[in-house]
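Thought: the user wants the 3D structure for the chain below. I'll pass the sequence to the structure tool as-is, report back what it returns, then summarize two notable features.
Action: structure_tool
Action Input:
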Amino acid sequence: MALKRRNQRRVDFNSSSMSDLVFLLLIFFMLTSTLVAPNAIKLLLPQSNSRTMAKQTVTVYINEKMDYFVGERKVAENQLQSEILLELNKSGNSSEGTVVVRSDKNVPVQYVVNVIDAVNNINNDTHQNHKVLLATSSKK
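Observation:
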């Protein structure tokens, strides 16, 4: 007596829903990655032909309203030196760090000189050798 089952189990796998899910995830990550801004503070940098690349330890931004930012924190001019020193000490390379000044091209030179003076005062007080670089965009 051979009894047969009416309902047989199917062993094949339907991958159409899996491919839909993969494409949806791909679209999601492509859209979200374009929304990430590498520079949160929008500036029009001055233009230059020279290309100096350095490992930046601290970035100081000066926007068109003449506001100072160390990293992304707004800092008053009289606290600039202490905030830069704090960030240089956080970076781990406290003896020879690099401070990159990203200034809007309409900012008077005196504001950039204030940052350079702050770094020079840090160097004189701590007997270290931090460098200051001015970030520029390339000429077209």
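Final Answer: Structure generated. Residues 47-138 form a domain with the Nucleotidyltransferase; domain 5 fold (CATH 3.30.420). The first strand starts at residue 47 and ends at 48.
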